[in-house]
Amino acid sequence: xxxxxxxxxxxxLDEVRTDLLEAGFRxxxxxxxxxFGRQKGHTExxxxxxxxxxxxxxxxxxxxxxxxxxxxxxxxxxxxARTGDTGDGKIFVxxxxxxxxxxxxxxxxxxx
Amino acid sequence: xxxxxxxxxxxxxxISFAAAQDSAPKIDTGDTTWMLVSTxxxxxxxxxxxxxxxxxxxxxxxxxxxxQSFIALGVITVVWVLWGYSLAFSPxxxxxxxxxxxxxxxxVGLTPNPDYAGTIPHQLFMLFQMMFAIITPxxxxxxxAERMKFSAYLVFLVLWSTLVYxxxxxWVWGVGGWIRNLGALDFAGGLVVHVSSGVSALxxxxxxGKRKGYDTELSPPxxxxxxVLGAALLWFGxxxxxxxxxxxxxxxxxxxxxxxxxASATATLSWxxxxxIHRGKPxVLGAASGAVAGLVxxxxxxxxxxxxxxxxxGLCAGGVCYYGIRLKSKMRYDDSLDAVxxxxxxxxFGTLATGLFASKAINAAGADGLFFGNPGLLLTQIESxxxxxxxxFIVSWILLKxxxxxxxxxxxxxxxxxxxxxxxxxxxxxxx
Lengths: 112, 432
Known about the structure:
Chain A is an alpha+beta fold and 112 residues long. Chain A is built from 2 helices and 6 strands. In chain A, the strands form 2 sheets. Chain A has a 4-stranded antiparallel beta sheet with strand order 2-5-1-6, covered by helices on one side. In chain A, strands 3-4 form a two-stranded antiparallel sheet.
């Protein structure tokens, strides 16, 4: 099993979610986040004072799936979340040792 | 026949008795009603200010900021009752400070005081004036936002209102007050409230120094919705502030009400137009700030100018104060919430504008300004503005320096990072 963590723009979340569901993925977790990469911050002048905006609002999607589904998940996320501008985000893939369904105690891929 | 004669005699006696009473000041229920309402309106401006400022600071300081305005309701009420009202308003022959005859409000009863307001109970006039005394020092907190110790602030409240507000109120409004006797016009507090607090705010900002992270990590307002609500409450309450300064219900109150509203409206527009051109987008913060700037500027003029001059004053105030707030970056002081730029600059501008636009046709008890053929008034306004500026600045400076030495004004670094809410009050603004 693999964990996919995708940092994307907040307004792209809904489209990504819809397409992931359509592609057969049955669950995910979403966190509100902020971050920066090459997009960096910028300075705003707001009523006479300068503000450095260092972090941009982002959304972190956490999705655990079978090894053979990773490529599909990544393809869906990238297709929906990409705008072409800096700040589109990043996707990280790590290995998952175990997964358990709380309601039934099922484990392994059945738990996903 | 005999009964008829007795009846007529009784009626004549009754009528002459009533006629004799007419020469004593009589309470007018219309005036009293309006002044009761106005007093309540002005009271509402203090929590309105609390929200206006509160929304502009960082989340960790929202309660501390609100508290600084709110607590003035408690502290200044006591100061005013015990000695403030007497020293400000009891008639003086020296022209500098009132007497002690009304300490603890003795002698301030429910019959009218014809010197100030011949048709409402004296206590009502006192209470109306109290609301002004309450909000004025709270305005200063804008310049020291997010970094002043609550304990030091409480002491400052008592001393500043006694040493700066009370004398100025006496000079400009008190019977015998020397600025009043010069013929300076300040209908509702351009000098007494706005110039005094704005200039004192400058002293405070300079003495307390900049917030940590000022040059690198400032944060934008944490809750603009709160700020707009505050601005709206201020606008609403200001009707009592200005129109109530007519101290009567009638034509003058209406005139002041109209002028107040128009000036606020046009200042809102002019601020965002200037902002739009200068920065590319009109902001909600700009609109709220513009409204307040217009209200500040019209304050001294409200009972002396007509609708079109009010429109012009508001239009100018938006632009003037927009540039007024840029002084702080030019001169490198941290006037966090623009107390200096809006109240100091706006109040001075309004005081001078009164010297231009005042007309006896609007208020026969006032004077004519430059545009109505009397350049003398403008000179008097300039002089009184200079006096207020110099006095407020110097006394505030000394007061704050002494307080800093004795108890320390500023939060230590730890507390400033932690925020006012936790460090001063052990509370959090938003637990949801």
